[in-house]
Automatic annotation (TrEMBL):
Residues 8-82 form the CHY-type domain. Keywords: Metal-binding, Zinc, Zinc-finger. The keyword Lipid biosynthesis does not apply. It comes from Streptococcus equi subsp. ruminatorum. This is CHY-type domain-containing protein.
Amino acid sequence: MRNCFGIALDQEYRCVHYHTVLDIVGLKCARCQAYYACYHCHDTLQDHAFEPTDHKEAYPVICGHCRQLLRRSDYECGSCPFCFSPFNPACHKHQDIYFSKEL
């Protein structure tokens, strides 16, 4: 079982901050190496701010539906390549929070 943390999480990693049917991913913090439903949850529960993963991180995302670890490129396709569950397209607004711009 892969763990994802957050506040008031449901079984697919929806949290108190993001809870539409499409909000089903966990995102990895580069500093603590843990997956969180969102940066708000992370920053509330941890003693440090969420740090974005860089391009070297193999699996910065976890699908909340099937629990598969995903590459950034998998996530950016808009749905899980394993279970085909769609992700929230509005999450691209937060990509700078979750993923480093460095290549």
